[in-house]
Amino acid sequence: MEQKGVFPFPFTRESITKKEEPKKVTDLSSISASKGKEFIFRLRNGKEVGRAGNLAEFASKIRTVPLESIEYHFSGRHFTPWLNDLKQIKVAHEIEQIKLSGEKLRQSILDILSRI
Protein backbone atom coordinates (compact mmCIF):
# COMPACT_ATOMS: atom_id res chain seq x y z
CA MET A 1 0.00 0.00 0.00
CA GLU A 2 1.64 3.20 -1.20
CA GLN A 3 1.06 6.51 0.56
CA LYS A 4 0.85 9.73 -1.41
CA GLY A 5 3.49 12.36 -0.61
CA VAL A 6 5.79 9.95 1.23
CA PHE A 7 9.35 9.74 0.00
CA PRO A 8 11.33 6.55 0.52
CA PHE A 9 14.50 6.73 2.60
CA PRO A 10 17.04 8.42 2.24
CA PHE A 11 15.13 11.18 0.47
CA THR A 12 12.93 13.74 2.12
CA ARG A 13 10.78 16.37 0.54
CA GLU A 14 13.26 18.97 1.83
CA SER A 15 16.33 17.24 0.38
CA ILE A 16 14.74 17.14 -3.05
CA THR A 17 13.25 20.63 -3.16
CA LYS A 18 15.88 22.53 -1.17
CA LYS A 19 18.93 23.64 -3.13
CA GLU A 20 21.97 23.01 -0.98
CA GLU A 21 25.52 24.18 -1.52
CA PRO A 22 27.80 21.40 -2.72
CA LYS A 23 29.90 20.05 0.11
CA LYS A 24 33.47 21.29 0.14
CA VAL A 25 36.14 18.61 0.07
CA THR A 26 38.56 19.40 2.84
CA ASP A 27 40.86 16.43 2.46
CA LEU A 28 42.67 17.00 -0.83
CA SER A 29 44.63 13.79 -0.30
CA SER A 30 41.40 11.86 -0.91
CA ILE A 31 41.41 12.99 -4.55
CA SER A 32 44.11 10.70 -5.91
CA ALA A 33 45.53 9.71 -9.25
CA SER A 34 45.74 6.08 -10.26
CA LYS A 35 49.03 4.35 -9.58
CA GLY A 36 51.52 5.36 -12.24
CA LYS A 37 49.50 8.48 -13.14
CA GLU A 38 51.21 10.91 -10.76
CA PHE A 39 51.83 14.44 -12.00
CA ILE A 40 55.57 14.82 -12.60
CA PHE A 41 56.86 18.35 -12.23
CA ARG A 42 59.75 19.02 -14.57
CA LEU A 43 61.91 21.91 -15.65
CA ARG A 44 62.07 22.85 -19.33
CA ASN A 45 65.25 20.76 -19.67
CA GLY A 46 63.33 17.66 -18.52
CA LYS A 47 64.81 17.45 -15.02
CA GLU A 48 62.25 16.11 -12.54
CA VAL A 49 61.68 18.40 -9.56
CA GLY A 50 58.67 16.75 -7.91
CA ARG A 51 55.75 14.34 -8.09
CA ALA A 52 52.16 14.52 -6.94
CA GLY A 53 49.85 11.55 -6.57
CA ASN A 54 46.90 13.48 -5.15
CA LEU A 55 45.62 17.04 -4.89
CA ALA A 56 47.22 17.65 -1.48
CA GLU A 57 50.63 16.72 -2.86
CA PHE A 58 49.92 18.78 -5.99
CA ALA A 59 49.16 21.90 -3.89
CA SER A 60 52.28 21.27 -1.80
CA LYS A 61 54.45 21.00 -4.92
CA ILE A 62 52.89 24.14 -6.43
CA ARG A 63 54.07 25.93 -3.26
CA THR A 64 57.62 24.58 -3.44
CA VAL A 65 58.76 23.67 -6.96
CA PRO A 66 60.75 26.24 -8.92
CA LEU A 67 58.57 28.80 -10.65
CA GLU A 68 60.15 27.73 -13.95
CA SER A 69 58.43 24.35 -13.59
CA ILE A 70 55.01 25.86 -12.91
CA GLU A 71 55.31 28.22 -15.86
CA TYR A 72 56.53 25.39 -18.11
CA HIS A 73 53.55 23.15 -17.27
CA PHE A 74 51.06 26.03 -17.29
CA SER A 75 52.13 27.29 -20.72
CA GLY A 76 52.06 23.73 -22.09
CA ARG A 77 48.61 23.14 -20.55
CA HIS A 78 49.97 20.04 -18.81
CA PHE A 79 47.86 20.50 -15.65
CA THR A 80 44.53 20.12 -17.47
CA PRO A 81 44.66 16.44 -18.52
CA TRP A 82 45.86 15.38 -15.07
CA LEU A 83 43.18 17.37 -13.27
CA ASN A 84 40.55 16.06 -15.69
CA ASP A 85 41.65 12.50 -14.88
CA LEU A 86 40.97 13.34 -11.23
CA LYS A 87 37.47 14.51 -12.23
CA GLN A 88 38.45 18.10 -11.36
CA ILE A 89 37.08 19.59 -14.58
CA LYS A 90 36.07 22.91 -13.01
CA VAL A 91 39.47 23.32 -11.36
CA ALA A 92 41.24 22.57 -14.63
CA HIS A 93 39.07 25.12 -16.43
CA GLU A 94 39.69 27.79 -13.80
CA ILE A 95 43.45 27.24 -13.97
CA GLU A 96 43.36 27.47 -17.78
CA GLN A 97 41.69 30.89 -17.49
CA ILE A 98 44.55 32.44 -15.50
CA LYS A 99 46.22 35.32 -17.32
CA LEU A 100 49.11 35.85 -14.87
CA SER A 101 52.74 34.84 -14.67
CA GLY A 102 55.46 34.63 -12.06
CA GLU A 103 54.58 34.35 -8.41
CA LYS A 104 51.08 35.67 -9.16
CA LEU A 105 50.50 32.55 -11.29
CA ARG A 106 51.63 30.30 -8.43
CA GLN A 107 49.37 32.13 -5.96
CA SER A 108 46.39 32.07 -8.31
CA ILE A 109 46.68 28.28 -8.71
CA LEU A 110 46.92 27.88 -4.94
CA ASP A 111 43.86 30.09 -4.47
CA ILE A 112 41.86 27.91 -6.87
CA LEU A 113 42.99 24.73 -5.11
CA SER A 114 42.04 26.19 -1.72
CA ARG A 115 38.40 26.51 -2.86
CA ILE A 116 38.00 22.77 -3.54
Mean pLDDT: 85
Strand share of the residues? Answer: 5-15%
Q: Stretches where pLDDT falls below 50 for ≥5 residues?
A: 5-23
Rg: 19 Å
Q: Strand tally, please?
A: 2
Strand count, sense and closure of the main sheet?
Answer: 2 strands, antiparallel
Placed side by side, the strands forming the largest sheet appear as 1-2
- How many structural domains in the coordinates? 1
What shape does the CA trace take?
globular
Taking the alpha carbons of the first and last residues, their distance comes to 44 Å
Helix content: 40-55%
- SS-based structural class? mainly alpha
H/E element sequence:
HEEHHHHH
User: How many DSSP H or I helices?
Assistant: 6
Sum up the structure in keywords.
two-stranded antiparallel sheet, 2 strands, 6 helices, 116 residues, mainly alpha
Summed up:
By secondary structure, the protein is mostly helical. 45% of the residues lie in helices and 8% in strands.
Can you give a write-up of this model?
This protein is mostly helical and 116 residues long. It has one domain (27-114). The protein has helices at residues 13-17, 55-64, 67-75, 79-85, 89-96, 102-114, and strands spanning 39-42, 48-52. It has a two-stranded antiparallel sheet with strand order 1-2. It is globular. Mean pLDDT is 85; it is low at 5-23.
How are the elements arranged and paired?
Elements: H1 13-17, E1 39-42, E2 48-52, H2 55-64, H3 67-75, H4 79-85, H5 89-96, H6 102-114
Antiparallel strand pairs: 1-2
